Amino acid sequence: MSFNSFGRMLRFTTWGESHGPALGVVIDGCPPGIVLRAEDIQTALDKRKPGTSKFVTQRKEPDEVKILSGVFEDDRIKEDFGGPVTTGTSISLMIENVDQRSKDYSDIRDKYRPGHADFTYDAKYGFRDYRGGGRSSARETAARVAAGVVAEKILAHLYESAIWIRASMVQMGPYKIDRDNFDWMNVEKNPFWCADAKAAELWAEKLDEARKNGSSYGAVIEVVASGVPAGLGAPVYGKLDADLASAMMSINAVKGVEIGAGMEAAALTGEENADEIRMKDGAPHFLSNKAGGILGGISSGQDIVARFAVKPTSSILTPRRTITAKGEETTVQTIGRHDPCVGIRGVPVGIAMMALTLADHALLHRAQCE
Questions:
Q1: What's the distance, CA 29 to chain centroid?
Q2: Less CB within 10 Å around the terminal CB: N or C of the chain?
Q3: Whose CA is closest to 63, among 35, 36, 101, 93?
Q4: Whole-model pTM above 0.85?
Q5: Among candidates 189, 192, 155, which has minimal Cα distance to 175?
Q6: Is residue 324 classed as helix, strand or coil in its secondary structure?
Q7: How high is the pLDDT of residue 132?
Q8: How far is it, in rounded angstroms, from Cα 323 to Cα 114?
Q9: Between vectors from CA 263 to CA 262 and to CA 269, what angle results, nearest 5°?
């Protein structure tokens, strides 16, 4: 019961550790006949991989994905589909680790790093992989990003109208974006994946200071899915927002998730919070979206909006008080290569988890209602 799997109709299982030979994912439930190439997955992985700027870990991993199973191509399929297609069987994807420096962690073998899972893993299993955190490392999320590409292809396969999933970092530490400057076109133009170009400039200055001081910042990432049809999700125990919250909360270092207005809804009146409905072009039209595109656990057809808060990276150069596995009081200073703001690389992971959750619910809906 290690709980390495997520989803029901579309179920994925990740495997591997930060300093093992490789990591990967097995995806079950993908329909057959969907074109899937390694280069399609690689584009998404390149956005998450380390070493892309001075604001992320300098570990040099190409994150090159290999498709081990679940696709097939011959001359006829190449002519009919234009590339290898899914067969309906398990899709196995592998990403090799090539730049591990396990010696960086030898000093913390017997020390519990504050803010990490060292103590809790030891308490549960009786020992732990201290090399980069092993299974608790954010390196595991590379496998999720790879699986997320498959999920996006499933959504495109199921729906003629495109479902578009985007994400932006909207806060770093105490520094929030200005919504008046929000433009999705800015996201690909700065190392923070931020829709506010001015905020990204400020963050670069502040994070550079924190990095040089051996400290770190937390972040908030907003994920938006547009074009999702009404009807996905289920009442009570199969709620779309509940599964989304679980998906986002499962991402490493995430400490809070909200849908739509989220926590701010508690400060609103009933009049302010209710998303009024009119008719427009013969279809229901909501005048606001405080619910974040989900009502009663079921999608309303509006944009689905989720945000998650990522804590500051716990691996910092500043010495912190802790204890050893034997209960001795000591201090620990984490060396090695770490993200001064792990939320930056959380942006493509958020997109992947949104896609995986929506694809799972889309297949569930088709099984019951279509």
A1: 20
A2: N
A3: 93
A4: yes
A5: 192
A6: strand
A7: 67
A8: 9
A9: 90
